[in-house]
Amino acid sequence: MSSDTRILYLVYCGVAVTVLKEFNVVVTEPYMDEPFHVPQALAYCRGEWSAWDPKITTPPGLYLLSVFLHRVFMFKCNLALLRLTTTLTLFALPPVLTRLLAFHQRRRPPPTLAPSIEALVLSTFPIAWFFGFLYYTEVPSLVSVLCTVVAATQNRHWLAGLLGIASCFFRQNNVIWVLYAYAASQLMRLRFKRGDTVLHDPPALGAGPGDLLRSITNAPKALPELLPAFAPYALVLALFGGFVIWNGGIVLGDKSNHIPSFHVPQLYYFIAFATMIGWPAVVCGEGGLGKLATEVISRMFGSKRRTLMTATISVFMAFTIQRFTIHHPFLLSDNRHYTFYIWRRVFMLHAAVPYLFIPGYQACAWAWWIRVARDQSLLQTLILPVLILPTLLPTPLLEPRYFLLPYILLRAQVVDMQPYGVFFEGLWYAVINIATTYVFLYKEREGVVRFMW
Questions:
Q1: Residue 257 confidence (pLDDT) above 80
Q2: Cα–Cα distance list, 412 to 18, 230, 408 (Å)
Q3: Is 111 helix (H, G, I), strand (E, B) or coil?
Q4: How far is CA 121 from the centre of its chain?
Q5: pLDDT, tens digit (0-9, with 9 covering 90-100), for 175-211
Q6: Quick check: 75 and 92 in contact, CB under 8 A?
Q7: Gap between the Cα atoms of 182 and 226, Å rounded
Q8: pLDDT at 1 over 60
Q9: Separation of alpha carbons 424 and 417, rounded Å
Q10: Could you give phi then psi for residue 7, rounded to 5 degrees?
């Protein structure tokens, strides 16, 4: 099997190189956000370290990576080779994902250059794949976070801390995922620790509100077991806190267009996005769609108490949609993105439309809960949704790129994907990637230019 997957990995890399070449042949000038990133990278390549474009909102990790490749491997600093920077990180995605999937599936990972088929498929996730050929921070940021998580799960916590610092050089909010790396590693360790543990953490599917309350109340008793490994992560938090104080906030530049908000519906958009783009992972588990639908209906309407809870949550969601929906100026004006048309032709079709999706949001959330909780404890299943809150709530713009990291971490927790499910997932991703790449490269429109995520 390892020799077969090595061949598939080479095919994956070969296809990526071919797509990158076509991007460079067709899109010969920096596009969309590249006109900000490329000049900044070129300035660093020239040694102009004090130069900084105030319109750039993310740290200089991407540019530093390009300078490293320029100085060590003699890469030229031009648009084509700057884009290669992100494509090289795309090459690193399958081996890293293989180790993350092996952690959740509790099995030994294969050799580094023989990534699993499931990891190869997940590496073609449309958002990651598309932005792996443009000079954007998305894929380097993703890989750096996944490396941090993998190092933590291998109990290499100081390495995880260093990688966590590196990840924050790509995106500031990656500091949240540094905490996730620590929490995920420790919850798995405590779950399978020999002997009794003071932390109450029952299997997720059978747990109730009382279990959650008990887990919270006795968590302080588990601190002596948890704190020894926390030192590297505390250092990351301290350094990040120093950055925030020095910078006067999290955003580096263009603060007027990146004001933190309280965007509750962003959570609903994420769960809908995750289900639409990741439906094979949702429905292709043990028992298939029929069993999953039965469980979701039971969770929502299986008793009077559950029906009342569903109704109460619906009222709360309706209130948050009415109170916290944000019509961002970029979303309303930039017709080069899919979200522009989704917002105008779906959400703005009628004032009632956003509320009609409420039952669907709840059903999707329960479906994902059932899928990821099947082989996890209560706290293991909750830690990701809890940490998604501070990453998505402050973002006022509906932007699929913001969903990349949360989705990959969520999908990695699905441990019982059937082989046919992995096949359909790969096929679905391939259809999306071919369509979006074709439209971007060959369907340039006057007044719209190129159409992209």
A1: no
A2: 28, 23, 6
A3: coil
A4: 15
A5: 999 999 999 999 999 998 866 778 899 999 999 999 9
A6: no
A7: 9
A8: no
A9: 11
A10: -65, -45
